[in-house]
Amino acid sequence: GIHCFSCPHCGNVFRFFLEMLSMGIRIPRRGPLLDRRHTFPAVSQRHRRCDARECLCPGGREQAENQGPWQLLLCASCAAEGTHRLCSSLESTASWECSSCAGPATGKRQS
């Protein structure tokens, strides 16, 4: 409802509510129907596997280390896919994007 609806940028409730009304978006006044802790259980879970076409990690797709070749990097844009550094030849990059976010022509974008 309105109590959970605010601007994602600044957090303002009132001005955001008025702007949404002017755009024809109606927000109910009632509170949430479900307990919020159980509404989105996957939100608190982090992606924890290598999605490279061929995972080279001897421990398998689920193994990850904090540093080194088996460090699991999540897509910097969506965080819905991950890769071990070695599985995608990412030796010195700080971030990585999956092929869905980077686009099929580029494959993987690194920075």
TrEMBL record:
UniProt keyword annotations, A-Z: Metal-binding, Zinc, Zinc-finger
GO cellular component, one term: nucleus
A single GO molecular function term of this UniProt record: zinc ion binding
PHF7/G2E3-like PHD zinc finger domain segment(s): 45-102
Keyword Cell membrane: no
Record keyword Zinc present: yes
PROSITE patterns named in the record: ZF_PHD_1 (PS01359)
This protein's name: PHF7 protein
